[in-house]
Amino acid sequence: MPATDIPGGVLFGAAYYAEYQPYERLHEDLDLMAKGGFTVIRVGESVWSTWEPRDGEFNVDWLQPVLDAAHEHGLKAVIGTPTYAVPPWLRRRYPETAAHLRTGQPMPYGARQDINHAHPAFRYLAERLIRRMVPRYAGHPAVIGWQIDNEPGHNILYNPDVFDGFREYLRDRYGDVEELNRRWGLTYWSHRLHDWADLWTPDGNSTPPYDLAWRRYQAELTHDYIAWQARMVRELVPAHHFITTCLALHQPTQDVAAIGEPLDVSTTNIYYGPQDGLTLPGDDDIHAEPRPSFLPWSGNAWLYLQLDISRGTRQAPFLVAETNASSIGGTAENYPPYRGQLRQVVWALIARGARMVEYWHWHTQHYGAEMYWGGILGHSLEPGRIYDELSAVAGELQRAGAALDGLRPRSEVAVLVSAESRWAMEFVGPLPGPTPAWMGDKQSYERILAAFYRGLFDAGLGVDVVAPAQLPEDPAGAAARWPVLVVPGLYIADDALLDWLRRYADAGGHLILSPRTGYATEEGVARHVVMPGVLRAAAGVHYLEYTNLARPIPVSAADPDAGIGGAATAWADCLIPETAATLARYEHPHLEEYAAVTTNRHGAGRVTYVGTVPDRALSRGLAEWLASTSIEPDPWRQPAHSPVRCTAAVTPDGSVLRLVHNWSWTPAELTVPGAAEDLLSGAELRSGDTVRLGRWDVRVLVERTK
Hints:
By secondary structure, this protein is α/β, with parallel strands linked by helices. Among the domains are: 418-630, Rossmann fold (3-Layer(aba) Sandwich), CATH 3.40.50.880; 644-703, Immunoglobulin-like (Sandwich), CATH 2.60.40. It is 29% helix and 21% strand. It has 18 helices and 30 strands. The radius of gyration is 26 Å and the shape is globular.
């Protein structure tokens, strides 16, 4: 079932675990949900030992009272297959299914996602359970969908059978060892293979092409596992049930643009740093606190990037299975959202494509590793501020009703995100990290992506995240759809992809290149051409040298009227313009002879090369320059220094929804540039009217075009 056909408009609810409650309170909980306007629960995905308490002994009836009560209360349910958290008996009786985190080192039991999901014994046991539990509830009137597994791709597997499969994968890809030797450059350090049996295990590997192939293979194993479960469940459930999985967006062994292919709809987890972490204009440091330890960076832009990646998994609306209800993370990460922030985030999720919002979770657990990860109800199980705020949001969603159906986020810019470049930079990071490391900072790709995305966000531009495999075949169509295409850190690229980028600019698009673009081949081998290689003529610039930067270097505009300035951080390409014009220069006695940013007209379009990782000011200035040169003006767009942000989404009938957020403690105002209606209050607004926003406030407006 497509996400746009989800019943009841935007679904709103929580993961609900009656089996975790300290006493029987099923109807009390569901009464609270129904009273609060919640419409959906997620159940069953974490308790294999409840479904199958002993090997081959099944208890598939335990969920019936929960689903019956949900149906009585008007709630829908998504059931999860519990294959990510295996029971102790499985590990004891089938030790061969344990995940190895290093060669010959099984993962100790006691956490989750500790299995080798590629092993035939595990597949047999998982299928045996799925084929009993799924048919049991496939006809239940409360059930609308199925979540297969949970947060797949958590571990890189070093099991012997996985390594044997990797060897066969290489044999199929390269044919013989001589071809592998040539493509990977294995003459270096005497790594040449004489026979496939010579292939060493990955633990001590130092060869970048090996690591990239290993990561590709690991992702294929994860994708195959999810596709396998999806096919099985699809055989067992009605056609109108949707099949999904719950994606954590930065797992090491998945490509989020590929793993969603066998699913009906993508579902993701959206977690963010609340409290002052959502303040705009915001902190320049992407690692500013409070930031839960499991998030790669923080800030308001991080929230929106996750939403754009979520939509990009299938280039379609998506579901949110988990997001902040209260504090998230470990025992010393207690940062519940400020009053109003939960409401703001819900409307941000919807504006960028979410068709379901579920919280993790309904009640805070009283035991286990996540007992201080806050739910809608705290440990007291009494409804409080969080419940009240979310109930009020549920009421707003009900009032908005059909106006939210089929929303399509408006985006002026595409950002090309490459899983393979992320994997490669985790092994050979170009940027220095907090401590010196031979292979650089494993977060290099994330830092480059963050630097460019934050500038676009600050400039008020909407973004579509696109993977290389999702680019339209015709670059001219892409240029018509996205007047600007930003390419951050595309380290791994074949000639065909680079030529597609060239033709995008030739067709009229504005292409933005960054450090490391196309520097390595699809094998992860450094190219032996003057960079930027295939794109040199289109960019009108080349470089022969580059340097890391021990500290930020000021960057100033070559034309003071351009408004571009800030600092270069971590990296500097020493750009030598050929036909390109210089937009900005390094203010440094050595680097001043090189350009920091150049732009070149190419065909009907333009190529701009940013030779550094821009700080927030430089990135914002570049984005504002892009908006002024390549994107149609939008009178709703707010200046970067304002705490007010306007995002837009289009309804199927062409109406434009404007989500106006005040991300600050200070009340704010917005002068409406055209006639509009407040969707929630029904108030009519004329052009020039003032909309007042309280602290941490949001208004939902519908533009009037007539």
